[in-house]
Amino acid sequence: MAIRVKTTRRKVFEHEAPMRVVAVLGGELTEEGRWLDSELDGALVRILKETRFKGDFGTTLYVPLAGV
């Protein structure tokens, strides 16, 4: 399966995409991540707390969210 990556200067929700990527630094969402979290009613922050994910170098947390 081929994956095509396209960067943009728009907000994460301003166009359709099968996956969204946001950075987590020291367990905190970046500004873009906080914006996305507010659109998801705090789901990302809840998941970060539950999993204790810190976003350390080389780590990835895949979060499937229906309808996102």
Query: Unreliable stretches, pLDDT < 50, 5 or more residues?
Result: none
Helix content: 25-40%
Determine the structural class based on helices, strands and strand pairing. Answer: mainly alpha
Please tell me how large the radius of gyration is.
12 Å
Mean pLDDT: 83
Structure, described:
InterPro entries: Macro_dom-like. It is a single chain. The protein is mostly helical and 68 residues long. The chain contains two helices and two strands. Strands 1-2 form a two-stranded antiparallel ribbon. The longest helix is centred in the middle third of the chain and has 9 residues, at 31-39. The protein is globular. The model has no long low-confidence stretch (mean pLDDT 83).
Please specify the SSE layout and strand pairing:
Blueprint: E1 24-25, E2 28-29, H1 31-39, H2 43-51
Antiparallel strand pairs: 1-2
InterPro entries: Macro_dom-like
Quick take:
The chain is mostly helical and 68 residues long. The chain is 26% helix and 6% strand.
